[in-house]
Amino acid sequence: MNSRQRPPLMRGRSLSYAPPVLRDADVYNIIPIHNLLTDHPSLRFPEIRAAAAALRATGDLRKPPFVQWNPNNDLMDWLGLLFGFQEDNVSNQREHLVLHLANSQMQLQPPPNIPDALAPQVLRRFRRKLLHNYSTWCSYLSKKSQISLSYRRIGTSTGNAESAELRRELLYVSLYLLVWGESANLRFAPECVCYIFHHMAGELNRVLDNDIDHETGRPFFPSFSGDCAFLKCVVMPIYKTIKAEVDSSRNGKAPHSAWRNYDDINEYFWSRRCFRTLKWPLEPSCNFFATTPKEKRVGKTGFVEQRSFWNVFRSFDKLWVLLILFLQASIIVAWEGREYPWQALESRDAQVKLLTVFITWGGLRVWQSSLDAGTQYSLVTRETMWLGVRMVLKFVVAMTWTVMFAVFYARIWSQNNADGGWSDEANRRIITFLEAVLVFVFPELLALALFVVPWIRNVIEELDWPVLYLLTWWFHTRIYVGRGLREGLVNNFKYTMFWVVVLLSKFAFSYFLQIKPLLAPTKALLELKNAHYRWHEILSSSNKAAVVLLWAPVMLIYFMDLQIWYSIFSSLVGATIGLFSHLGEIRNIEQLRLRFQFFASAMQFSLMPEVQLLNPKMTLVKKLRDAIHRLRLRYGLGQYKKIESSQVETTRFALIWNEIILTFREEDLISDREHELLELPPNCWNIRVIRWPCILLCNELLLALSQAEELADEPDQSLWLKICKNEYGRCAVIEAYDSIKYLLLMIIKVDTNEYTIVRTFFKEIDYYIQSGKLTETYKMVLLPKIHAKLIALIKLLMRPNRDLSEAVNILQALYELSVREFPKIKHSIEELREKGLAAPHPASDSGLLFENAIEFPDSDDAIFCRQLRRLDTILTSKDSMHNVPRNIEARSRISFFSNSLFMNIPRAPEVEKMMAFSVLTPYYDEDVIFGLMNLRSENEDGISTLFYLQKIYEDEWENFLERMRRDGMADDNDLLGKKARELRLWASYRGQTLSRTVRGMMYYYRALKMLSFLDTASEMDIREGPAVGLNGLHSGRLPTTRNLSRATSGINILFKGHEYGSALMKFTYVVACQVYGQHKARGDPRAEDILYLMKKNEALRVAYVDEVHVGRDEVAYYSVLVKYDQQRQQEVEIYRIRLPGPLKLGEGKPENQNHAIIFTRGDAVQTIDMNQDNYFEEALKMRNLLEEFNNFYGIRKPTILGVREKIFTGSVSSLAWFMSAQETSFVTLAQRVLANPLKVRMHYGHPDVFDRFWFLSRGGISKASKVINISEDIFAGFNCTLRGGNVTHHEYIQVGKGRDVGLNQISMFEAKVASGNGEQVLSRDMYRLGHRLDFFRMLSVFYTTIGYYFNTMVVVLTVYTFLWGRLYLALSGVEDAAADNTSNNKALGAILNQQFIVQLGLFTALPMIVENSLEHGFLPAVWDYLTMQLQLASFFYTFSMGTRSHFFGRTILHGGAKYRATGRGFVVQHKSFAENYRLYARSHFVKAIELGVILIVHDNIKLVSRSVMDHGTLCVQPSGLDWLKTVYDFDDFMSWLWYSGGIFTPAEQSWETWWYEEQDHLRTTGLWGKLLEIILDLRFFFFQYGIVYRLHIANGSTSIVVYLLSWIYMIVAVGIHLIISYARDKYAAKQHVYYRLVQLVVILVTVLVVVILLEFTPFEFLDFVTSLMAFIPTGWGILLIAQVLRPFLQTTVVWDTVVALARLYDLMFGVIVMAPVAFLSWLPEFQSMQTRILFNEAFSRGLQISLLLAGKKSN
């Protein structure tokens, strides 16, 4: 049986039992290792053969029993048979290892002496890196590592011993890779993999050492072997345990503390008990496994994620302690009433009062220890008893300190009071207090000392000595991660200084502008006696409640404004670093022109490898030389070296530049004409200078002509110097001269008199130029006439039908001008004949001069036509071509690329010596290529997506049509026929589709092939290549035998073949299409599109999960890798590795990445999302970027290289622009500051490049635990930082990124990120970062992750608190009382307007403006900002703030975070009001209405503030203010509200389903969450309490009875509702008369009661309206509380009433929100204004929006 064959299995979910396609043994992934004699470009490298040969050395190894041993087997096969690894896992890791060792050996400097043998240092370096985590883990657990190597023998012993050691080392590495490759979901638990490897390496050692098995007395063999033995015996038991835990989590809805996630499973292996309990082979009865009942099973390990707001305090307690203690100290000092704090501190009383901060500090420690015990108590078991002891001791010690400080403090004052002043005894007691303080703060002082010398702390933390554990036991639990995280001294100093400045600014501001001004009104309020309260005052009348409400908003601002200060300073620091990084020096094409000649040298310097010397190390001198060279390039210092066309460097530059411009043309960013103007044509027509792009030479020749005319009598030298002042002028003149000379000789027959005359004429001109006598000999004033005739000749030659007689006339005229009139001295015909400038024998002339001498070149010769057009452009262009290229995207990309080459970018190695890398993209079921139907289907306005794209990308659409016509499209109807795929691709490349991402990433492959050619091409290849290839490089319009087609255009035509091998070895692209198998089985068009992408891109691999039915019930899951085989012309399967079960146990995206990561290759892996893009010119810099892994940043080399993103969706709509502006400042300026100086950049998603082998052994590139890791990307950064990695940020390279473009998409994205941050608050990673980093880095982490969201929420809460406080002061009467008291009026007035501090929030827009200024200039940045404000950007940002606050707060309190698929389509659809209501009712509308009610009640009816939060939503969607649509929306909303569907009706159709879904978070929340929710809901009862005392019926009474009686109103209202409902249910259907009767009775009774009240009480009709403001909020409050108590109420009769009332409230809210929108829709012109605001960006690019929205489509 063929070794590749498998028993027949069932594919997909279909019921056919067809066997899978049998794979040919010759199918391979990248290199055919199974057959090294194949003709494959990569096998020319001796390093591949060396690595493969090392693996073949099985020699005298003991052969596995019960198996047929094949003599061709290698070490991998031997391990596979020994331990029962899967055959395809073995094949996959074999290629993985061979490729890596070969690539590493290629990078060796100096190269090894024997290229065909594997260098030991390569293997040793790799083994140390791969197994570093394992070695550290062994050291941590005090276990002896199983890596048994004897280095003493290497180098001193015989060759056999050395090769045996090499083989042993190779076996360890291979074993680890095989274990890792088959561990499936266990890869998320890296120390679990270490445990497995540890025992298997131990068994491997016993086999290698020929041990005897004591039980059998025979040679030792591993405890399991056979087919899939490793999977079944090792992976599956642990996998099933994880799966059982996930199943018990109720899809993540159970509290995190109730089940073990991936981190808990992994952290079980951080203690030595795993060796005691799990044993080896694994003990199935161990209480770790799912075989044990839940209650007896091992619980949470290392950390318990408890849901509570207090986590923000618990994780970052140092920060809160600092803020609280400073606040207390400030109040004490400010209370003294002196102008400056130092004056107040002169008083001994104030000094002693300040000592109370230590009592507070002690109290805060008590609280911290209580929180620790309260959240982590479930970690304490019999095995972890000491943990419980420490919790209790910490609480007791903190309590003791607090009591002791309080006692000592009381003794100071008692002594002072007894002595009547500060006596010696009182001072002695102060000293005693201070001595106690010294002991108390001693640990902090020690930490400070270690902070100053960070390396000592790192060494101590990384030592695994038991004595050190004892010393640090008190301070924190010993854990495997979070050790040795201190940075070097320089970095330490930088981020410390940053935070010192920020904190000083904040504290000065807080003291002088927040705390000090508040004390006067506080004292005034406390002194305000007998204030007349307008209600029943429950508290005593000391106005304390008023004081609390006065301070509350200011305190909230005090605790959050550090975020604003951080924002301000980070913007300034980021801009400064950006300036020093030389960002934005070339901002536009004009600035590039000025530097283009230096740009050519910069490209050579940065992108081309330098000649390697024998000593390749970067010495200080070499670094200095490089820096000086770069400086000279950047500022054009020193003598500029002119690049002439003969030089190899010129041709190299031309090849790269032209390929970049060609990709622009392929992407339809530029037209054919722009392509010609931008390209740098290769040398031909014997032109002596470099042929700069036409856009640089335009107008230069005409300038030179006018100078020649002006300076006609000057000597040659001064004229030439004047022309040469501009390099482009010099080149234009020489190129025009050489071209004309060549052209004239080309069109005149060779063996004619005319040919001789022309040649002689040019020889004479050349002679006078060289002797410097041109102006002496010739009349320069005639040049314009000659110029005009030449232009006429060229125009004639450019015509398709050339007129010979006209050509003869022009040439004769030229002859007359040049030969007869041009010289200053006129010559007779005889003299001309003598010189050879006239026909020799007039008698023999058969006709006029030139009449029979002209031979036109072939009119189909595209190259000739192209040269003519260029010459014509040089001769005739008068404008400066500032608008080439026209496309904004093309301009910005060229500017960024050219600027980046002048930045500090590492030198590039040769492609052979560069690091290999992979790109990994997870894909689920998004669009691959847009379907034709989807593109053409129209919305309700008659607008199709295709039409929308044509209007937004108008110039690109024209370029596309031009390209299609050139490729043979007869008319536009072909676009729907034979060019349909091209049309679909064009549209897809403008959306956020997989095809766009794949095209972008495959530019790496294209770039590497080109760079590989340039690295290895000889001077002859480069010089001669263009003569053949480049003259027709970018072919013309009409294909002929003389014209190279565009299919082979570009540099490909010069390739020799080996470039493909180099590129494939260095780059792989794996797309993890998780459900590709299901797509194929269903015949989904996406499967066909993915196959098309594989067909087009040979380096593309697709990994997917295949489900195969085995037998009746069992399903086997496989991880499969496929590619498109170009020889066989079909998709082939490369590897199929069985998984232990279903892939998705945690979050989907990281699980998808994890299953495919085993198929990636190389030293690095770049994570790319499905909505990204890449650019050819950026791909050229990838090898430079990878060199960063070899540089130290601080005391460590990088493990993640951060890359900047270019947001490409900004032009779609205003909202997309706002979003992209916000994102751009985050992915540039913010990341720049985080990386340097703050050293806390994590991984925020997408284009970052990971050190692959570092992460491979440390848990992978993301975390996957259900719900807690919903923002999976950032946890890779947390994990990296905690494990001692280093993250940098590089801005000389960028990757495209798409963002959401519609309001609903944006809101869902914001909701997802905010919920993810809410979950991060609970996570162990966040807690450990807060406690293991030093104080200042901890501040950086807080304010750039969860702190940002927390403080956003605090800003919203501040607005609430401020308004509620004003409401309290107004309703209670305190405000009036204070206003009457004139002495306090001024102070109180100042403080009541504290909202000015909220307006500081404007500073949060600062990063955006600063980054824009840096990259595009100050004035454009300000203009952009003003435009944004006019387009209501502030509304959008406020709206986003509301979204973030709502979801962040809800997630921390109640959970409920979930992945929200935002969809990445274009927004041309009008969303119905019902849909918007569902999305925003709870997060925005209800809150806005609440604020509106407060404002109405508080006399100032400022309805404007409302509209910010609620009506913004409806104004920023297409046709949001269309009257007809508003009417339809209202009808739709009403039918949704009253729809009475069943239990399975979706929320989109039924209000009731939606209402229940909105309460889901209350079902999963804990007791504390419910209690807090109820407490928050009680605020709605305050309206009733405040307002009933204001009603006339209350008659000025402040008795509590008034309030209690007011509840009758509520009871009556509910009673009426119940009676009507009951009557409707009973009579409405059959006895309608009774129903009407009941209604009549109710109305009559109500009217009667109202009349009685009006007649016999002070009740007025206005009370009726006022009381609505009181009782509607109360009803809402009751409803919210009823929702919390739903488990108790749902089974009772009350629940139906609750549901009915809730429906009425939603109806009321809907009407309130919709009324203003309806009014605006009714007004004329508002719709067109709204459209203009929404689509302004697209307008500026020619979007005919009025046509678009009216649906009057033009043809």
Automatic annotation (TrEMBL):
Q: Does the keyword Cytoplasm apply?
A: no
Domain 1,3-beta-glucan synthase component FKS1-like: from-to ranges: 167-283
Specify the signal sequence span.
none
User: GO cellular component annotations, sorted alphabetically?
Assistant: 1,3-beta-D-glucan synthase complex; plasma membrane
Q: Where are the transmembrane segments?
A: 387-410, 430-456, 463-481, 493-513, 538-558, 564-584, 1348-1369, 1600-1622, 1634-1654, 1661-1684, 1704-1723
Give the main location.
membrane
**One biological-process term from Gene Ontology?**
regulation of cell shape
Membrane topology value: Multi-pass membrane protein
Q: Where in the cell is it found?
A: Cell membrane
Arranged from A to Z, the UniProt key words for this protein are:
Cell membrane, Cell shape, Cell wall biogenesis/degradation, Glycosyltransferase, Membrane, Transferase, Transmembrane, Transmembrane helix
Q: Which family does it belong to?
A: Belongs to the glycosyltransferase 48 family.
What is the protein name for this chain? 1,3-beta-glucan synthase
Q: Which organism is it from?
A: Morella rubra
